[in-house]
Amino acid sequence: MDNFTSDISGQQFPLEQRILGASIRQPIFKLIRKEYPNFGKDKYIAATELTRFKEAYITEFLKDESGQLSQLDQQVIQSFKDNKVISASMDNDGATTASVGERVADKVAEFGGSWTFIISFVVFLLIWIAVNMYWLNNKGFDPYPFILLNLILSCVAALQAPVIMMSQNRQEAKDRERARNDYLVNLKAELEIRELHEKIDHLIIRKEQELVDVQRDQVEKLGFLLQKMEKIEEAFKNK
């Protein structure tokens, strides 16, 4: 296996890890120059060595105004280092089961905000009023002005409101978690896209360098053939 010598550490690395300084993005290149001032565009660095500078650049890029990384940014950087998929870890984290009270609150909120509840409740009110006013001739268990019905409606409203608020709070928590997950995925995707662009640039520059080397080799061979032809012509002339 062919090896090359890194210009920053002097160690031997496989040739496929060789990266030309000209193919490195400018912010990362500046970080390398801070630590190794002699490193230039024509120098070479190994991909494993470049990873350390990429992580340092990403850390500086994600720091907020206070100069600190948020917990979400640290999670993204860790997944970037470990080469893990964020969405898979989020699926595992979101596998928590709701309690009985939370499930009841969700069902009550779902039913209370439906046309089924509205229509059924209107039918109940009409039946209550019709039974007391017409069937029992307003002398039944709840005559006009329906004090018992008002009490029931007040109790339903008093109980239904906090239950619906519990469900809304759970939904808000879910929305915050979705927003957090979207931020993590988008940030990881942006970093991966930058990494992909850098790899493509490196491949293009490497292929161009290989073409230049091939052309130089061909020119040298042509020069050698021309010299041999000139020597042969001189030999014929001398004869």
UniProtKB/TrEMBL annotation:
One Pfam family matching this protein: DUF1003
Transmembrane parts of this sequence: 115-135, 147-166
Coiled-coil boundaries: none
Organism: Sphingobacterium ginsenosidimutans
Lineage: Bacteria, Pseudomonadati, Bacteroidota, Sphingobacteriia, Sphingobacteriales
Domain of life according to the entry: Bacteria
The UniProt record lists the keyword Endoplasmic reticulum: no
Protein's recorded name: DUF1003 domain-containing protein
Entry-linked InterPro entries: DUF1003
